[in-house]
Every structure is written in C-alpha cells, then in structure tokens.
C-alpha cells in the first residue's frame, strides 16, 4: 500500500495480502439489496470481459468471415490460421522478450533488496531524504531523459535491443523495487537486526544470514512486478530497439499497425500470444501480483 | 571522523551502485535534457554532432507553448486525464464498495476486475482499436455494431476520430485497464478500517448510509489521494495506448508524449527535449508535494 507510504496500512500476511479483519456479520439479509449487488457485480464482469470475447472469436475467424455484420458472431468456421501466422510473426520477439525480462527482473530485485534493507533497517541520518530522491525516479516521465539517454547509449556503443533494454529496466526499476523491499523490511522487528549486531555480525553478514532468508515473499512480489512491467513496456522498446531486435510489444504493434492490410484476426491472436506469459503469472501467482500492486505504484 | 565513517560508510557503500545510477540516469539526464532543450538542435546533422548547435535559451519553449498544435496536445492531455481519473476512481470505488461486505464469489469478482492490469497497453490497444472503430451504419463494427444490435443506434459515434473529444475515447480502454487497480486500493482501505468504528456508528443509531458517509469515507481520504497521484501521473505519461490505437501522427488524439516521439523521429532533438521537460514539470507539480508530504509524515 504505498507509494502511499503513509496511508493507514492494513495488516498483511506474509504475501502482502491484507488480512481480513472482519468476519461475516450475517448482517445482510437475503433480499433486494443482496440481489442488486450481485446484478451490479455480474454486469461489471460482463463489461470487463467484452474485449476478451472479441479477442477470442476474432482470432479464430477466417479471412472470409470478416464481414462487419458478423462482427459479434462466433466464427462461421473455426480456423487456426491466424494463430499460426501470429506465431510465425511473433515467436522470435517472444523469445527475445524472455531473454530481456528475466535478467532485468533478477538484477533489479537484488539491488532493490539491498537498498531496502539499508534504508529500512541499517539506517543513517538522511536516509529518508535519500529514499525520497530514489523514489522520484519512479514518477518521472521518461520522455524527460530520453534524448540524452539515446546519446549516452550511442556513445557507449551499447547494442540496441536486448542489452539496452536490460540495462534500462534495471536502472529505472530500482525505485519501485527499493520501495517494495523497504516497506517490507520496515515490518521486520528491530530486535532481529539488533540481535545480529550484538552478536558482532556486520552489515553484509546480517543481510545475508538474517534478512535474505526471510525475504522470499517480497522477492516473489518484486520479481512478478518487474517481470510484468518490463514485459509490457513499449516506451523504451520504441526508442531502444527495432523490429529486428525488439521485444514482443514492439513486434505486436508492428503487426497490428503495420503497412500491410490490417488483419484483425492475426493481430488479435498476436495480442493473446503477447499477453499469455503475464496472464499465466497473474493466474498462478495472483495474490503476489496484488501484493506488488498494493505496495507500489504503477509504471505507465 | 573515523567513527562517523564507520557508521555511515558501509550503508552508503551498499547503496552506492543504485545511488550512482539514480544520480546519473535520473538527475544527471534531466539536467542534460534541459541543456539540449535550450539549443537550436533541430536537424539530424546537429543531432549527430556534424554541425554545431548554439544556445537559444527558452525559444523552443515559447515556440511550443505558443503553437496551436502543441496547445491541442496539452488540451488533449487535460481532457484525457480528467476522464481517466474520474472514470477509474468512480468505477473502482463502486466495485470496492460492492465487494466490501462479505459476498460469495468475492475472489472471482476481484480477479476478473483486476486482470486487465496484467495486460500490456499495446495488446489491449489491438482489441480496443477494433472496438472503437469509427464506421457507422452498414459498415459499423466494434462497439457501434454492438449498439445497433442492442437497439441503441443513437449511441453510435466516431470515437477517437472526433477532433475535440476523440481523446476521451482513448480514455475508455485506460479506464477498463485500471479500474480494478483502484478497486484493490479502496478495498484494502475499507478492510483496514477497524470494525469498532462501524459498530460505534451503528450503536449511535446511524443509518447504514450515515456510517459510510461520516465514518468510512473520511478514513479513505489518504487512499483516494494515493489513487489520484498514481493514476494521475500514469495518465500524464500516457503513450503506449495512444500509439497502439491511433497512429502517432494522428492529430485528433495526440498528447505531448506522442509529440515528443514524433519530434525525436525527425531528429528535432531540441524540441523533443523541451517537450520532455514540460512533461516533467507537469508531473512534478503533482508528485513532488505528495512525496514531500509522505516523507514528512514518516519522520
């Protein structure tokens, strides 16, 4: 809960999920109010799922099935052609995205963990100021650093594509990973660190043998967060890679908005391919995903 | 001195890699960007250092701010941000409120409301581009066709092809994507309010509405502020969604972030840098007070 560092933070369990404070009161009777709530909630679900329905049906439609009158109908004949075409167009980019996102997440998470530990539990005067200065990096519009960034990367001969993007996602991932870890370490009792200090352990030793072993839940949260935001990034991809060496968001955008005749079937199958990894993570590790959302903000 | 170093040394050393990166890549580059923005670096030859540049001070800023074209972008940004904020906050709040009391299937509702957040703007742009197709009547597809099917023909419109309000159409997918996030924030807020408070209100004979109005809502103000800042700064930086739904050169829906990309693509680095700085100032006006306030409260 906190870029929002100051909001009244609800107690959380280890996964960062707010603990349910309230038991079922049984206060609400069966009846009108309850039915209305269900109706409203189900209506919400239907609206949210409209784009999903469109994605699915269109991705299975053949070229002859594209008539606008049948736009909302199920496919006349179900075909896998779009999926095959989309796979051919996107699979190299999908692979590159994995190569980029995995190291970028791991390195940024590790740096964030070190920073979070120091700022939360091995503090010094001015630590809060340092933290705020780091945090600001999360909010800046990257347009405000893009031109010199391009020049630096060019001067330093950093190859465009995966290597550039790894570096960028590590650097600009530091604020959010630091934030999540710091907030998590703030909940660790002081005594734990003090005890280790009294035993004569130094900072690194304390980090290694006391802090790191209990950091697994927030590592999961941070890794998921970084994975998702780097996977979904488009801004850096546009500026620092090309369709030959870029990630899947760029490839998908070229596929969908390319010069060629617009084929919605292929681009929608492509959109599903491109979203699959983050959706799988969301479905399997949903509660950690929510933990990341709660503890951080969002990179636009 | 030595004592001080032993206390300060190790933590700073451990922070050093990140601090250096932040100092260079955030603050250093903001300064470097500003210095580019006050030059006449408008051509490819200058951008690559073949031809020299000279300082023109704030000329690029005044040119930009005086141009109708850029004012249109700023207006779009304002409209987009207002609609995006109102939409996500209203829907997110209502969803959280509906889910606040125990209800069967809460987990399913929550998961589905939140899932669009895991999808990239580029991927959702693909389907929303189709949904927001501006064709009407015979040729209508997307939402316009859906309106016809539902007998709501009068709702058909040309979506993002409207010059003045087209940008609002792009706020719809943005709202679709982030309402669930605001819901999650508010829901955590509701759950964080101690039960005793509600009980006390009820004991005093307050109606359910009054308990919400006078007990619960005031407690949610800090969450609302966070949501405003987070969604607000995302909205100001908005780029992906607009790029994937409409083309970058599309006048109707352009915002400063898109202008910046267009300027950079034509090697007009000075203008691109100036737009970057203008965006930074706009975002900073929203974010810095929030960060300062947060920092103060922590002490």
Automatic annotation (TrEMBL), chain A:
It comes from the Bacteria. CDD domains: TM_PBP2. Belongs to the binding-protein-dependent transport system permease family. Keywords: Membrane, Transmembrane, Transmembrane helix, Transport. Residues 1-20 are annotated as: Disordered. SUPFAM superfamilies: MetI-like (SSF161098). Residues 94-285 form the ABC transmembrane type-1 domain. InterPro entries: MetI-like, MetI-like_sf. Gene3D superfamilies: MetI-like (1.10.3720.10). It is a multi-pass membrane protein. It is found in: Cell membrane; Membrane. It comes from Paraoerskovia sediminicola. The chain crosses the membrane at residues 35-56, 100-122, 129-154, 166-185, 206-228, 234-252, 264-285. PROSITE patterns: ABC_TM1. This is ABC transporter permease.
UniProtKB/TrEMBL annotation, chain B:
Residues 74-290 form the ABC transmembrane type-1 domain. It holds the Pfam family BPD_transp_1. It is a multi-pass membrane protein. It is found in: Cell membrane. Its main location: membrane. Keywords: Cell membrane, Membrane, Transmembrane, Transmembrane helix, Transport. The chain crosses the membrane at residues 12-32, 77-99, 111-131, 163-190, 211-234, 269-292. Belongs to the binding-protein-dependent transport system permease family. This is Sugar ABC transporter permease.
């Amino acid at each position: 809960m906190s870029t929002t560092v100051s909001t009244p933070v609800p107690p959380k369990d280890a996964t960062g999920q707010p603990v349910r404070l309230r038991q079922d009161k049984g206060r609400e009777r069966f009846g009108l109010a309850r039915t209305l709530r269900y109706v409203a909630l189900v209506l919400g679900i239907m609206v949210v799922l409209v784009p999903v329905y469109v994605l699915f049906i269109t991705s299975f439609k053949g070229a002859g099935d594209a008539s606008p009158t049948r736009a909302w109908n199920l496919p006349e004949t179900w075909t896998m052609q779009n999926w095959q075409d989309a796979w051919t167009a996107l699979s190299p980019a999908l692979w590159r995205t994995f190569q980029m996102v995995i190291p970028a997440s791991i390195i940024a998470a590790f740096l964030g963990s070190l920073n979070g530990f120091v700022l939360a539990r091995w503090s010094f005067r001015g630590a809060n100021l340092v933290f705020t200065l780091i945090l600001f990096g999360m909010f800046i519009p990257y347009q405000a650093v893009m031109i010199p960034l391009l020049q630096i990367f060019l001067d330093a001969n950093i190859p465009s594509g995966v290597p550039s993007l790894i570096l960028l996602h590590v650097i600009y991932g530091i604020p959010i990973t630091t934030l999540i870890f710091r907030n998590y370490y703030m909940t660790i009792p002081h005594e734990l660190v003090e005890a280790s200090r009294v035993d004569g352990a130094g900072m690194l030793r304390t980090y290694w043998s006391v802090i790191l072993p209990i950091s697994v839940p927030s590592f999961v949260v941070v890794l998921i967060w970084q994975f998702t935001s780097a996977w979904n990034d488009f801004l850096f991809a546009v500026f620092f890679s090309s369709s030959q060496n870029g990630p899947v968001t760029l490839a998908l955008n070229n596929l969908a908005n390319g010069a060629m005749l617009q084929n919605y079937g292929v681009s929608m199958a492509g959109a599903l391919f491109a979203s699959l990894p983050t959706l799988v993570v969301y479905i399997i590790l949903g509660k950690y995903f929510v933990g990341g959302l709660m503890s951080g903000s969002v990179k636009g | 001195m030595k004592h001080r170093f032993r206390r300060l040394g190790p933590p700073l050393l451990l922070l050093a890699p990140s601090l250096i990166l932040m100092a260079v890549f955030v603050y250093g580059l903001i300064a470097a960007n500003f210095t580019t923005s006050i030059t006449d670096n408008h051509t490819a030859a200058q951008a690559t250092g073949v031809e020299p540049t000279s300082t023109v001070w704030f000329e690029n800023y005044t040119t930009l701010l005086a141009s109708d074209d850029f004012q249109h972008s700023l207006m779009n940004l304002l409209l987009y941000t207002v609609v995006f904020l109102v939409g996500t906050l209203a829907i997110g709040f209502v969803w959280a409120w509906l889910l606040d009391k125990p209800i069967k299937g809460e987990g399913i509702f929550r998961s589905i409301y939140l899932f669009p957040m895991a999808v990239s703007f580029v991927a959702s742009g693909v389907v929303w581009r189709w949904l927001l197709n501006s064709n009407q009547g015979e040729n209508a597809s997307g939402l316009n066709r859906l309106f016809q099917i539902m007998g709501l023909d009068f709702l058909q419109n040309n979506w993002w092809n409207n010059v003045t309000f087209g940008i609002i159409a792009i706020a719809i997918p943005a709202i679709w994507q982030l309402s669930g996030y605001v819901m999650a924030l508010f829901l955590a807020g509701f759950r964080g309010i101690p039960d005793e408070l509600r009980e006390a209100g009820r004991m005093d004979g307050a109606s359910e509405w009054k308990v919400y109005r006078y007990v619960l809502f005031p407690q949610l103000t800090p969450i609302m502020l966070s949501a405003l800042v987070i969604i607000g700064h995302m909205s100001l930086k908005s780029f992906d969604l607009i790029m994937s739904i409409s083309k970058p050169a599309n006048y109707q829906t352009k915002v400063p972030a898109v202008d910046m990309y267009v300027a950079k693509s034509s090697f007009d680095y000075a203008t691109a840098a100036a737009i970057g700085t203008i965006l930074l100032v706009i975002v900073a006006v929203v974010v810095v007070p929030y960060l300062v306030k947060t920092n103060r409260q922590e002490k």
